[in-house]
Amino acid sequence: MKPWKHTKKVAIVYDRVNKWGGAERVLLALHEIFPDAPLYTSVYDSKKASWAKVFPAVKTSFLQKIPLVKSLHELFGWLMPVAFESFNFDKFDLVISVTSEAAKGIKTKPDTLHICYCLTPTRYLWSLNDYYFKNPPVYFKIFPFFRVISKPNRLVPYKKVDLAVSAFNQLGLPLIVVGTGSERVKLKRSAKENIKFVGEVSETKLAKYYQNAKALIMPQEEDFGIVAVEAQSYGVPVIAYKKGGSLDTVIDGKTGILFDKQNPKTLIRAVRKFEKMKFDKKRLTENARKFSKARFKKEFLDLTKKMLN
Questions:
Q1: Measuring CA to CA, which residue among 139, 177, 133 is closest to residue 159?
Q2: What's the structural domain count of the chain?
Q3: What is the CATH number of the domain that holds 254?
Q4: N or C terminus of the chain: which is more exposed, having fewer CB within 10 Å?
Q5: Residue 37 sits in which domain range?
Protein backbone atom coordinates (compact mmCIF):
# COMPACT_ATOMS: atom_id res chain seq x y z
CA MET A 1 0.00 0.00 0.00
CA LYS A 2 1.34 3.43 -0.97
CA PRO A 3 1.63 6.24 1.63
CA TRP A 4 -1.44 8.41 1.97
CA LYS A 5 -1.27 11.53 -0.19
CA HIS A 6 -2.85 14.26 1.86
CA THR A 7 -2.53 17.91 2.89
CA LYS A 8 -3.09 17.24 6.59
CA LYS A 9 -0.22 17.70 9.03
CA VAL A 10 0.31 14.55 11.09
CA ALA A 11 2.33 13.80 14.24
CA ILE A 12 2.97 10.46 15.93
CA VAL A 13 3.51 10.17 19.70
CA TYR A 14 5.01 7.28 21.69
CA ASP A 15 5.80 6.87 25.40
CA ARG A 16 9.56 6.41 25.04
CA VAL A 17 11.94 5.44 22.26
CA ASN A 18 14.59 3.27 23.92
CA LYS A 19 13.90 -0.34 22.92
CA TRP A 20 12.58 -2.68 20.21
CA GLY A 21 9.44 -4.81 20.36
CA GLY A 22 5.88 -5.22 19.11
CA ALA A 23 4.81 -1.63 19.73
CA GLU A 24 7.80 -0.38 17.79
CA ARG A 25 6.64 -2.42 14.79
CA VAL A 26 3.32 -0.58 15.00
CA LEU A 27 5.18 2.73 14.89
CA LEU A 28 7.10 1.71 11.78
CA ALA A 29 3.86 0.64 10.08
CA LEU A 30 2.38 4.06 10.88
CA HIS A 31 5.52 5.69 9.50
CA GLU A 32 4.94 3.84 6.21
CA ILE A 33 1.43 5.33 6.08
CA PHE A 34 2.50 8.82 7.20
CA PRO A 35 6.19 9.13 6.16
CA ASP A 36 6.33 12.89 6.80
CA ALA A 37 5.05 12.66 10.39
CA PRO A 38 7.59 13.48 13.12
CA LEU A 39 7.78 11.25 16.21
CA TYR A 40 7.27 12.85 19.63
CA THR A 41 8.43 11.03 22.77
CA SER A 42 9.53 11.58 26.34
CA VAL A 43 13.09 10.24 25.87
CA TYR A 44 15.08 8.87 22.94
CA ASP A 45 18.06 6.52 23.02
CA SER A 46 19.40 6.50 19.47
CA LYS A 47 21.73 3.55 20.18
CA LYS A 48 19.07 1.21 21.59
CA ALA A 49 16.40 2.42 19.17
CA SER A 50 18.20 2.85 15.85
CA TRP A 51 14.92 1.86 14.10
CA ALA A 52 13.60 5.38 14.84
CA LYS A 53 16.10 7.00 12.49
CA VAL A 54 13.65 6.49 9.62
CA PHE A 55 11.42 9.24 11.03
CA PRO A 56 12.02 12.74 9.61
CA ALA A 57 12.47 13.96 13.19
CA VAL A 58 12.32 12.62 16.74
CA LYS A 59 11.16 15.30 19.16
CA THR A 60 11.92 14.74 22.85
CA SER A 61 10.67 16.34 26.07
CA PHE A 62 12.63 18.08 28.82
CA LEU A 63 13.27 14.63 30.35
CA GLN A 64 15.88 14.00 27.66
CA LYS A 65 18.27 16.25 29.58
CA ILE A 66 18.05 14.27 32.83
CA PRO A 67 20.94 11.81 33.35
CA LEU A 68 20.02 8.09 33.35
CA VAL A 69 16.40 8.67 32.34
CA LYS A 70 16.90 6.80 29.04
CA SER A 71 17.51 3.52 30.85
CA LEU A 72 15.76 4.12 34.20
CA HIS A 73 12.55 5.74 32.96
CA GLU A 74 10.46 3.84 35.54
CA LEU A 75 11.94 6.08 38.24
CA PHE A 76 10.56 9.14 36.48
CA GLY A 77 7.00 7.90 35.94
CA TRP A 78 5.61 10.75 38.00
CA LEU A 79 7.03 13.24 35.47
CA MET A 80 5.78 11.49 32.33
CA PRO A 81 2.31 13.14 32.24
CA VAL A 82 3.94 16.56 32.57
CA ALA A 83 6.39 15.73 29.79
CA PHE A 84 3.64 14.91 27.31
CA GLU A 85 1.45 17.84 28.32
CA SER A 86 4.40 20.13 27.56
CA PHE A 87 4.32 19.36 23.82
CA ASN A 88 2.55 21.79 21.48
CA PHE A 89 0.55 20.20 18.65
CA ASP A 90 -1.28 23.34 17.47
CA LYS A 91 0.10 23.09 13.92
CA PHE A 92 -1.12 19.51 13.42
CA ASP A 93 -4.46 18.32 12.03
CA LEU A 94 -3.99 14.73 13.22
CA VAL A 95 -2.04 13.35 16.17
CA ILE A 96 -1.69 9.58 16.66
CA SER A 97 -0.55 8.41 20.09
CA VAL A 98 0.72 4.85 20.50
CA THR A 99 0.84 4.22 24.21
CA SER A 100 0.58 2.06 27.26
CA GLU A 101 1.28 4.92 29.61
CA ALA A 102 1.34 8.72 29.46
CA ALA A 103 1.52 9.59 25.75
CA LYS A 104 -2.27 9.57 25.45
CA GLY A 105 -2.33 12.55 27.83
CA ILE A 106 -1.18 15.03 25.20
CA LYS A 107 -3.09 18.28 24.78
CA THR A 108 -4.52 19.26 21.40
CA LYS A 109 -6.79 21.96 20.02
CA PRO A 110 -10.52 21.13 19.73
CA ASP A 111 -10.26 20.91 15.95
CA THR A 112 -7.24 18.58 15.99
CA LEU A 113 -8.09 14.89 15.70
CA HIS A 114 -6.33 12.74 18.30
CA ILE A 115 -6.40 8.99 17.67
CA CYS A 116 -5.05 6.90 20.54
CA TYR A 117 -3.77 3.40 19.75
CA CYS A 118 -3.82 2.11 23.33
CA LEU A 119 -1.50 -0.88 23.66
CA THR A 120 -2.56 -1.73 27.21
CA PRO A 121 -3.40 0.08 30.46
CA THR A 122 -0.10 0.66 32.29
CA ARG A 123 0.68 -2.72 33.85
CA TYR A 124 2.57 -1.54 36.92
CA LEU A 125 -0.28 0.83 37.80
CA TRP A 126 -3.27 -1.39 37.07
CA SER A 127 -3.43 -5.05 36.04
CA LEU A 128 -0.08 -6.13 37.54
CA ASN A 129 0.36 -3.61 40.34
CA ASP A 130 0.79 -6.22 43.09
CA TYR A 131 3.10 -8.37 40.96
CA TYR A 132 5.47 -5.51 40.15
CA PHE A 133 5.71 -4.38 43.76
CA LYS A 134 6.40 -7.93 44.95
CA ASN A 135 8.94 -8.45 42.14
CA PRO A 136 10.69 -5.11 41.62
CA PRO A 137 13.08 -5.05 38.65
CA VAL A 138 16.83 -4.99 39.25
CA TYR A 139 18.15 -1.98 37.37
CA PHE A 140 21.90 -2.30 36.14
CA LYS A 141 14.32 -7.17 26.62
CA ILE A 142 12.11 -12.42 25.38
CA PHE A 143 10.34 -14.62 24.66
CA PRO A 144 10.81 -18.22 25.50
CA PHE A 145 10.97 -20.79 22.80
CA PHE A 146 10.98 -24.53 22.90
CA ARG A 147 13.86 -26.04 20.86
CA VAL A 148 14.56 -22.55 19.71
CA ILE A 149 13.09 -19.34 20.98
CA SER A 150 12.93 -16.01 19.34
CA LYS A 151 12.02 -12.39 19.74
CA PRO A 152 14.17 -9.63 21.19
CA ASN A 153 11.60 -8.65 23.76
CA ARG A 154 12.04 -7.59 27.37
CA LEU A 155 13.00 -10.02 30.13
CA VAL A 156 10.75 -8.48 32.75
CA PRO A 157 8.63 -10.14 35.48
CA TYR A 158 5.23 -10.19 33.78
CA LYS A 159 6.66 -12.08 30.78
CA LYS A 160 6.79 -15.17 33.04
CA VAL A 161 10.02 -16.45 31.53
CA ASP A 162 10.81 -17.96 34.92
CA LEU A 163 7.89 -20.35 34.33
CA ALA A 164 9.40 -21.55 31.06
CA VAL A 165 12.85 -21.89 32.63
CA SER A 166 11.46 -23.92 35.54
CA ALA A 167 9.50 -26.22 33.20
CA PHE A 168 12.43 -26.83 30.86
CA ASN A 169 14.79 -27.39 33.77
CA GLN A 170 12.62 -30.40 34.53
CA LEU A 171 12.01 -31.45 30.92
CA GLY A 172 15.67 -31.29 29.96
CA LEU A 173 14.73 -30.19 26.44
CA PRO A 174 16.63 -27.42 24.60
CA LEU A 175 15.26 -23.93 25.21
CA ILE A 176 16.66 -20.78 23.66
CA VAL A 177 15.80 -17.44 25.25
CA VAL A 178 16.21 -14.36 23.09
CA GLY A 179 16.24 -10.93 24.68
CA THR A 180 17.60 -8.98 27.60
CA GLY A 181 16.22 -7.11 30.59
CA SER A 182 16.01 -6.78 34.36
CA GLU A 183 15.32 -10.51 34.94
CA ARG A 184 18.18 -11.85 32.81
CA VAL A 185 20.73 -12.42 35.58
CA LYS A 186 18.25 -14.11 37.90
CA LEU A 187 16.88 -16.32 35.13
CA LYS A 188 20.31 -17.34 33.93
CA ARG A 189 21.35 -18.34 37.45
CA SER A 190 18.33 -20.61 37.81
CA ALA A 191 18.65 -22.24 34.35
CA LYS A 192 20.29 -25.59 33.65
CA GLU A 193 22.66 -26.33 30.77
CA ASN A 194 19.85 -27.18 28.32
CA ILE A 195 18.71 -23.54 28.42
CA LYS A 196 20.66 -21.01 26.39
CA PHE A 197 20.42 -17.21 26.65
CA VAL A 198 21.49 -15.49 23.43
CA GLY A 199 20.69 -11.87 24.32
CA GLU A 200 19.39 -9.37 21.82
CA VAL A 201 19.80 -10.48 18.20
CA SER A 202 19.51 -8.94 14.74
CA GLU A 203 16.40 -9.40 12.60
CA THR A 204 18.35 -11.78 10.36
CA LYS A 205 19.44 -13.91 13.29
CA LEU A 206 15.96 -13.81 14.76
CA ALA A 207 14.52 -15.11 11.49
CA LYS A 208 16.95 -18.05 11.62
CA TYR A 209 15.82 -18.92 15.14
CA TYR A 210 12.21 -18.93 13.97
CA GLN A 211 13.04 -21.03 10.92
CA ASN A 212 14.68 -23.69 13.08
CA ALA A 213 12.23 -23.58 15.97
CA LYS A 214 10.04 -26.48 16.93
CA ALA A 215 7.68 -24.28 18.95
CA LEU A 216 7.34 -20.88 20.60
CA ILE A 217 6.53 -20.80 24.31
CA MET A 218 4.35 -17.88 25.43
CA PRO A 219 3.79 -18.32 29.20
CA GLN A 220 2.48 -14.83 29.98
CA GLU A 221 -0.82 -13.07 29.46
CA GLU A 222 -0.66 -10.46 26.71
CA ASP A 223 -3.26 -8.05 25.36
CA PHE A 224 -2.19 -9.18 21.89
CA GLY A 225 1.27 -10.69 21.82
CA ILE A 226 2.70 -10.11 18.34
CA VAL A 227 5.37 -12.77 18.83
CA ALA A 228 2.73 -15.52 18.61
CA VAL A 229 1.72 -14.23 15.18
CA GLU A 230 5.34 -13.88 14.08
CA ALA A 231 6.05 -17.49 15.02
CA GLN A 232 3.04 -18.75 13.05
CA SER A 233 4.08 -16.69 10.03
CA TYR A 234 7.21 -18.88 9.95
CA GLY A 235 5.12 -22.01 10.32
CA VAL A 236 6.04 -22.41 13.99
CA PRO A 237 3.24 -23.53 16.38
CA VAL A 238 2.75 -21.79 19.73
CA ILE A 239 2.39 -23.17 23.25
CA ALA A 240 0.63 -20.32 25.06
CA TYR A 241 -1.16 -19.43 28.27
CA LYS A 242 -4.92 -19.60 27.66
CA LYS A 243 -5.78 -16.00 28.40
CA GLY A 244 -5.64 -12.60 26.71
CA GLY A 245 -4.36 -12.21 23.16
CA SER A 246 -3.51 -15.88 22.66
CA LEU A 247 -7.24 -16.64 22.51
CA ASP A 248 -7.41 -14.48 19.37
CA THR A 249 -4.14 -15.47 17.72
CA VAL A 250 -3.69 -19.19 18.51
CA ILE A 251 -6.18 -21.88 17.40
CA ASP A 252 -5.97 -24.57 20.06
CA GLY A 253 -4.99 -27.91 18.52
CA LYS A 254 -4.56 -26.37 15.05
CA THR A 255 -1.87 -23.69 15.28
CA GLY A 256 -0.69 -24.47 18.79
CA ILE A 257 -1.67 -25.56 22.29
CA LEU A 258 -3.23 -23.46 25.03
CA PHE A 259 -2.60 -24.29 28.70
CA ASP A 260 -4.86 -22.97 31.45
CA LYS A 261 -2.64 -22.58 34.53
CA GLN A 262 0.59 -20.65 34.92
CA ASN A 263 2.67 -23.25 36.70
CA PRO A 264 5.52 -25.56 35.59
CA LYS A 265 3.46 -28.73 35.91
CA THR A 266 0.79 -27.51 33.49
CA LEU A 267 3.34 -26.19 31.00
CA ILE A 268 5.26 -29.48 31.12
CA ARG A 269 2.04 -31.35 30.39
CA ALA A 270 1.36 -29.04 27.43
CA VAL A 271 4.86 -29.55 26.00
CA ARG A 272 4.56 -33.34 26.29
CA LYS A 273 1.16 -33.20 24.57
CA PHE A 274 2.70 -31.02 21.87
CA GLU A 275 5.45 -33.59 21.26
CA LYS A 276 2.82 -36.13 20.18
CA MET A 277 1.08 -33.78 17.74
CA LYS A 278 1.62 -32.66 14.15
CA PHE A 279 0.79 -29.23 12.76
CA ASP A 280 0.03 -28.06 9.23
CA LYS A 281 2.49 -25.32 8.28
CA LYS A 282 0.07 -23.93 5.68
CA ARG A 283 -2.63 -23.59 8.32
CA LEU A 284 -0.19 -21.74 10.56
CA THR A 285 0.88 -19.22 7.91
CA GLU A 286 -2.72 -18.67 6.79
CA ASN A 287 -3.74 -17.88 10.36
CA ALA A 288 -0.86 -15.40 10.69
CA ARG A 289 -1.95 -13.56 7.53
CA LYS A 290 -5.15 -12.47 9.29
CA PHE A 291 -2.91 -10.21 11.37
CA SER A 292 -0.70 -8.93 8.55
CA LYS A 293 0.87 -5.48 8.44
CA ALA A 294 -0.86 -4.83 5.11
CA ARG A 295 -4.27 -5.38 6.70
CA PHE A 296 -3.37 -3.19 9.67
CA LYS A 297 -2.21 -0.34 7.45
CA LYS A 298 -5.30 -0.49 5.21
CA GLU A 299 -7.82 -0.60 8.05
CA PHE A 300 -6.04 2.06 10.11
CA LEU A 301 -5.91 4.40 7.12
CA ASP A 302 -9.58 3.73 6.30
CA LEU A 303 -10.47 4.62 9.90
CA THR A 304 -8.35 7.78 9.81
CA LYS A 305 -9.91 9.01 6.56
CA LYS A 306 -13.39 8.35 7.92
CA MET A 307 -12.72 10.31 11.11
CA LEU A 308 -11.09 13.22 9.31
CA ASN A 309 -14.00 13.67 6.90
A1: 177
A2: 2
A3: 3.40.50.2000
A4: C
A5: 10-119
The single-letter code of the amino acid at 60 is T
pLDDT tens per residue across span 178-193: 888 778 888 999 999 9
Together in a domain, 143 and 112: no
Q: Are residues 55 and 144 in the same domain?
A: no
Average pLDDT, the chain: 86
Identify whether residues 280 and 160 lie together within a single domain.
yes
pLDDT digit string, tens, across residues 205-228:
999 999 999 999 999 998 888 899
Total-model pTM = 0.76
What is the length of the chain?
A: 309
Positive or negative torsion for Cα 279, 280, 282, 283: negative
Q: Where are the beta strands (DSSP E) in the chain?
A: 10-14, 39-41, 58-60, 94-99, 113-118, 143-146, 153-154, 175-180, 195-199, 215-218, 238-241, 256-259
Give the C-alpha separation, 93 to 84, whole Å.
18
Which residues are CB-contacts of 25 (< 8 A; sequence separation ≥ 6)? 226, 293
| 229 domain-assigned | yes
- Tell me: the pLDDT tens digits for 52-99? 999 999 999 999 888 776 666 666 677 889 999 999 999 999 999 999
Is 155 a residue whose pLDDT tops 90?
Answer: no
Residue 1 forms part of a structural domain: no
